[in-house]
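Office hours follow-up: a student asked to see two folded examples consecutively, so here they are.
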Amino acid sequence: MRYRDLDDTSGCPNHGPCEQCGTEEDVYTSTFQSWCTGVFCLRLCENCTDTIDVRLDVLTTMNRVWEHCDHLGITVDEMADISGIFPEENELGPSPGRCSP
């Protein structure tokens, strides 16, 4: 598997308003790591980037992770391998494919 920088936003949409407050000034694309679904991107202004508390429901987060994988040109499985969300082995044996806290 090839290495990918999951925080790379060069393929992500870089136009449009801030997804938090709606302003169109000083908006940048940033990445965020969700607890167990992967990395996703959001367009945020400077003010919201400093004060953001990203709270998305699970389905929205999963969709955003899939979209970010598309921006990176990788699959969700490749993202999981790169990020180490699902280690192949743990103290209980092979990974059951579930997140653990």
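And the second, which I mentioned at the end of office hours:
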Amino acid sequence: MDKLTVAKRIISAAVGFSVSKIVYSVVENNVSASSAVDRAAIAAGTYVLGAIAADASRNYTDAKIDEIVAWYQETKEKFQS
């Protein structure tokens, strides 16, 4: 596994965790459950929303990292020539 892949995984994990935490906090502060069924439905929905948000943030973060690496390589080549 190369350094770029390791960096992407570490950053994606941190971003994914953060986004999932935000989704959980938003749901927790804005949705009330009056029964066990409500709590189960809210928990399942929160999990799914967190997973969707984490996947989207991972895709976005990976794309931005790729842009930064491409910019760095282009800049490096300009100064070396």
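Two things to take away from it. The chain has two helices and no strands. The chain has a mean pLDDT of 92.
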